[in-house]
Specification:
Layout (H helix, E strand, L loop, with lengths): L2 H5 L3 H9 L3 H23 L2 H18 L9 H22 L23 H16 L2 H12 L4 H8 L3 H20 L8
Helix pairs in contact: 2-3, 3-4, 3-5, 4-5, 6-9, 7-9, 8-9
Length: 192
């Protein structure tokens, strides 16, 4: 079986083979979904280093749990849930062990109560981003979400949307320009 035939195998078949110990099948899953898992982790953590750690943790967890994938739903949904759970466990561990050392071996400064990731400013930023993405034209929005949020390649986006890879790149460029424009405008004050 050549590489093209292996890479065209369905996710469910790859998962079944990986669960049976087929290292090549697991490598194909890793190759296929590494960017996707990283994008989910980065969106949740907001930190590239943590996202990379969470990507590794997620694939380790996947290796241990792939036999529990029953194939009843999309593999990507199952993998997204597994990744989300890894990131949430990471946050719980970090919260329960505040004495952990930083990457440079120093004891971190205690956090200020107002500096949590769910502060009012953070929530307002998320709302502004969601509104800006929703305001994008449909083609730009779809391409932006598939590429920048889900981590898909332009060739895959082209196949999913029945367009060319060049069109996908153009739509992504337009989406990013429009988002910069929409997010650079001062947000209106919220009324109580």
């Amino acid at each position: 079986m050549n590489r093209d035939e292996k890479s065209s195998r369905p996710d469910q078949e790859l998962a079944r083979l990986a669960a049976a110990g087929d290292a090549a099948a697991f490598e194909e899953i890793h190759r296929r979904y590494h960017r996707f898992v990283y994008a989910v982790a980065l969106r949740m953590t907001g930190n590239p280093a943590d996202a990379e750690d969470m990507t590794q943790e997620s694939f380790l967890s996947l290796l241990l749990r792939i036999g529990s994938f029953r194939g009843e739903g999309a593999f990507t949904l199952w993998l997204r849930r597994l990744t989300v759970n890894q990131v949430l466990m990471h946050f719980r561990r970090r919260k329960s062990r505040p004495e952990d050392l930083t990457a440079d071996g120093e004891t971190p400064e205690p956090s200020v109560d107002g500096a949590n990731p769910f502060s009012q400013t953070s929530v307002l930023d998320r709302i502004a981003i969601e509104r800006a993405v929703a305001a994008l034209p449909k083609g730009c929005r779809t391409t932006f979400i598939l590429h920048d949020v889900e981590g898909r390649e332009h060739g895959e986006i082209a196949r999913l949307t029945n367009r060319t890879a060049g069109n996908s790149k153009s739509q992504l460029h337009k989406a990013r320009l429009k988002l910069r424009e929409l997010l650079s405008c001062p947000a209106p004050a919220l009324q109580n």
